[in-house]
Amino acid sequence: MLRILRTGTLTALCLAAAPLMAVEPNAGDLDTASTHSADAVERASRLSRDANFTDKLEREAERALSAAGRASPDRTPDLSVPEIDDQALARARKDIEALLADPRLAVPNASASEDSDPHPLIFISFSLPEDSLRALLAEAGRTGSPLVLRGLVDNSMQRTTARLGELLGPQNGREASAESTPSLAIDPTLFERFDVDKVPAFVLPQDTIAPCTPEGCPVPEHLKVAGDVSLAYALGVMAREAGGTILGDRAEQWRQRLEVRP
Known about the structure:
This protein is of the alpha/beta class. The chain has a domain at 94-260: Glutaredoxin, CATH 3.40.30. The protein is built from nine helices and five strands, in the order H-H-H-H-E-H-E-H-E-H-E-E-H-H. The protein has a five-stranded mixed β-sheet. Helix 5 (130-143) links the parallel strand 1 and strand 2. Helix 8 runs antiparallel to helix 9. The longest helix has 22 residues, at 27-48.
């Protein structure tokens, strides 16, 4: 009896240590699985034809979409058109009309009707010392040279016009003459065309400056001098550096005109 128990114990230990083997399904198991699968397909087919069931699915889908919209109201696109501020438009229109009507802010083409040759350009900024600005304004008025600004004062046309008026105002009790009133060009493209990165700067173009086109901004042959000097001094430098050339001769002619005029 003891021997039998020991033998049974060893058999049990061997079974416990042996790996489990997959049992291959017999024909009856395959038939049962096939029957269950066919039943599931038939039930799904009946449900798809059930009008009540499909209506219920549609209602549940609509309820879920409605709940999602209430949970995320910020994601709804705002298709409303912003209101137009009529007063702001009126002020802007008035500023533009004043700018266009002011002869001091006329956009020049670097040439005058009385002269066939283009005028020198004077690149400035209202951040320059006031004495330097007044001197350059006086020289520009005597030669008809345009003053070129990169932008508006505080992005305001009214403030730009007012600042120019202050600089052209009476000095030492003397009123500014009509001849001394220069023209002003607000054109950042001119700074880019002539590679002006500091002011004052003086440019004498050989030809009239053509406007920009979609293909680019034309840059004529020119002479340039930069530094805190007068227009007369800059023209003298141009005449010396480009002596014997068309532009050098023109620079000397402009310098002489500047010296002759009071």
